[in-house]
């Protein structure tokens, strides 16, 4: 298995993984459009110097992914810079083997090196396995987002 930074040649597989992620999250969020839709501008994530997109290759196929992006904190926070984590995905056959934990470790170190003082991410409240994975690396629940579809 090889962990590395994503490159533009990875775009076709990353777009496939984005659709797998969306499909997995659709049952958790009725407001996600039906059919093919997109969460990310993956080309921008790869090219942005304030973003690090990590992939895991296994048998020459990308099977894990995640990014960290440096952002300015809200003025009310004690930190000035944080890293937002997103596009966290591991193929089902590799889950529970520490892949997500390793990707998060690489992203955490990169974020520290860039001056980030905190990490943030979003996870669906019904996604208990993802919540447990994030708790294993030190995350805790901070804010609950609520919505009402009109």
Can you characterise this structure?
Helix content is 30%, strand content 25%. The protein is an alpha+beta fold and 150 residues long. α3 (99-113) links the parallel β4 and β5 (119-121). It has one domain: Gcn5-related N-acetyltransferase (GNAT) (Aminopeptidase, 3-Layer(aba) Sandwich). It has four helices and five strands; from the N terminus they run βααβββαβα. It has a five-stranded mixed beta sheet, with helices on both faces. The protein has helices at residues 11-25, 42-47, 99-113, 128-136, and strands at residues 2-5, 51-58, 61-72, 81-90, 119-121. It is globular, with a radius of gyration of 15 Å. The model has no long low-confidence stretch (mean pLDDT 95). The protein starts with a strand and ends in a 14-residue tail after the last helix.
Task: Please sum up the structure shown.
The protein is α+β, with helices and mostly antiparallel strands and 150 residues long. Helix content is 30%, strand content 25%. It is built from 4 helices and 5 strands; from the N terminus they run E-H-H-E-E-E-H-E-H.
